[in-house]
């Protein structure tokens, strides 16, 4: 029997008793994939929440809406050892489920991709330590797998030498989409984003949108990149959607319909439903590719002799890659002593190797340079309108 306040599991359990894992948002695209991966793991008793009817996938269903309130969420969470938060948009729900886990004495893992949500969750560190609860945030694709590639790349390049990091995600066609992800994409295309220039995080208010060359996105890795690469001067993250032509991106950016929250939400749900239906009919999504390029020169200074180290991950769709990292994290910590407090992968580096091993088993191919960094110019950076930027 263990007690989390002493670095143990969520609550007292008899030896050999399965670890109770609850997937919040378990009928969404990511949640279903996480359940599918964990449903075949020995020693895990799986359950899930959703605001919809139960499906025919693995796990016991708990009907639950975030709008049900803190006390009701805690009542459900308290029955489990770990909660895997796959709900979104994270920029909307922020730290609400992490706080509920802390108050419930239940371990927390998420696939959060919001800078502001990460900061809100990390601000709960004192509460989590006091209550003896481990909170692991950013264990999805970006951040999560991107964080792992950043750490591997820094190791190969020499962390002190890295001045600029550019992350590019290309999402292949024919894959399902979640409404929260689509709605977040709408906001990103129409609004600004945070990037790092000259060693300072700045806000660029107008997104230079182009789906094929990469839409500038935000990634919480921007808050930890200096811990990995102490001399960092620039960081940027770009996402290209093979299924989204540039004319559609321009329509999203300019049409007033997408500026209306209610209408935008309806369009996101409709778009996700249509895209997912077509993807299920096709059967197999096109691969997704994540590339992290670490350079010894700043983005504006790269020349023909700039050393660039490239780390690459290719997998069967971005959602499956996200789910694989989340499931890998559960498997790595379930039933084991985990120190309380709020951490990401950089703050919990012992998870790096087991998470990557699980990811490879899930079909993610990872290329890491083992020799000297390649020599050549940095990947071409998207133009940034920085006239209206400011510190965030």
What is the compact description of this entry?
With 392 residues, the protein is α/β, with parallel strands linked by helices. It is built from 13 helices and 16 strands.
List the keywords:
alpha/beta; Rossmann fold; Dihydrodipicolinate Reductase, domain 2; 2 domains; seven-stranded parallel sheet; seven-stranded mixed sheet; 16 strands; 34% helix; 21% strand; globular
List the helices and strands and how they pair.
Blueprint: E1 19-24, H1 29-38, E2 44-50, E3 60-63, H2 70-77, E4 82-85, H3 90-93, H4 96-104, E5 107-110, H5 115-122, H6 125-131, E6 134-136, H7 145-157, E7 164-171, H8 179-190, E8 193-197, E9 200-204, E10 215-217, H9 225-228, E11 234-241, H10 246-254, H11 261-282, E12 288-295, E13 307-315, H12 318-333, E14 341-343, H13 352-361, E15 365-367, E16 374-375
Parallel strand pairs: 1-2, 1-4, 2-3, 4-5, 5-6, 6-14, 7-11
Antiparallel strand pairs: 7-12, 8-9, 10-11, 12-13, 13-15, 13-16
Helix pairs in contact: 1-12, 2-4, 8-11, 12-13
Region (Disordered): 368-392
Protein name: Saccharopine dehydrogenase
Describe the fold and architecture:
It comes from Corynebacterium pseudogenitalium. This is Saccharopine dehydrogenase. It is a single chain. By secondary structure, the protein is of the alpha/beta class. It folds into 2 domains: about 5-140 and about 320-360, NAD(P)-binding Rossmann-like Domain (Rossmann fold), CATH 3.40.50; about 145-315 and about 365-375, Dihydrodipicolinate Reductase, domain 2 (2-Layer Sandwich), CATH 3.30.360. It is built from 13 helices and 16 strands. The strands form 3 sheets. A 7-stranded parallel β-sheet has the order 3-2-1-4-5-6-14, sandwiched between helices. Strands 7, 10, 11, 12, 13, 15 and 16 form a 7-stranded mixed β-sheet that branches. Strands 8-9 form a two-stranded antiparallel ribbon. Helix 12 packs across helix 13 (about 350-360). The protein starts with 18 loop residues before the first strand and ends in a 17-residue tail after the last strand.
């Amino acid at each position: 029997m263990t007690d989390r306040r002493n670095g143990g599991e969520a609550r007292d359990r008899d030896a050999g008793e399965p670890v109770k894992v609850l997937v919040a948002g378990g009928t969404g695209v990511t949640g279903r994939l996480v359940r599918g991966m964990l449903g075949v793991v020995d020693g895990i008793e799986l359950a899930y929440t959703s605001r919809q009817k139960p499906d025919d996938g693995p796990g016991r269903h708990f009907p639950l809406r975030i709008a049900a309130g803190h006390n009701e969420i805690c009542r459900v969470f308290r029955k489990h050892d770990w909660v895997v938060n796959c709900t979104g948009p994270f920029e909307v729900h922020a730290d609400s489920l992490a706080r509920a886990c802390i108050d419930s004495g239940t371990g927390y893992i998420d696939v959060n991709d919001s800078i502001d949500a990460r900061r809100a969750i990390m601000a709960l560190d004192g509460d989590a330590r006091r209550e003896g609860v481990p909170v692991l945030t950013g264990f999805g694709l970006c951040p999560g797998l991107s964080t792992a590639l950043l750490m591997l790349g820094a190791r190969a390049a020499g962390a002190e030498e890295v001045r600029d990091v550019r992350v590019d995600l290309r999402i292949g066609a024919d894959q399902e989409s979640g409404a929260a992800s689509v709605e977040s994409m709408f906001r990103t295309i129409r609004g600004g984003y945070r990037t790092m220039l000259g060693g300072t995080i700045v806000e660029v208010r107008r997104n230079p949108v182009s789906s094929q060359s990469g839409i500038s996105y935000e990634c919480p890795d921007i808050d930890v990149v200096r811990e990995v690469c102490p001399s960092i001067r620039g960081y940027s993250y770009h996402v290209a959607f093979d299924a989204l032509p540039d004319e559609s991106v321009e329509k999203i950016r300019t049409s007033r319909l997408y500026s209306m929250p209610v209408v935008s939400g309806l369009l996101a749900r409709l778009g996700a439903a249509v895209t997912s239906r077509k993807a299920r009919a096709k059967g197999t999504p096109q691969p997704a590719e994540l590339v992290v390029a670490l350079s010894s020169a700043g983005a504006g200074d790269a020349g023909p002799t700039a050393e660039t180290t490239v780390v690459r991950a290719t997998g069967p769709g971005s959602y499956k890659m996200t789910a694989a990292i989340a499931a890998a994290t559960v498997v790595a910590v379930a039933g084991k002593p985990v120190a309380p407090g709020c951490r990401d992968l950089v703050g919990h580096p012992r998870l790096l190797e087991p998470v990557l091993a699980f990811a490879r088993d899930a079909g993610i191919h990872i290329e890491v340079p083992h020799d000297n960094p390649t020599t050549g110019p940095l990947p071409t950076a998207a133009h940034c309108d920085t006239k209206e930027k400011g510190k965030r």
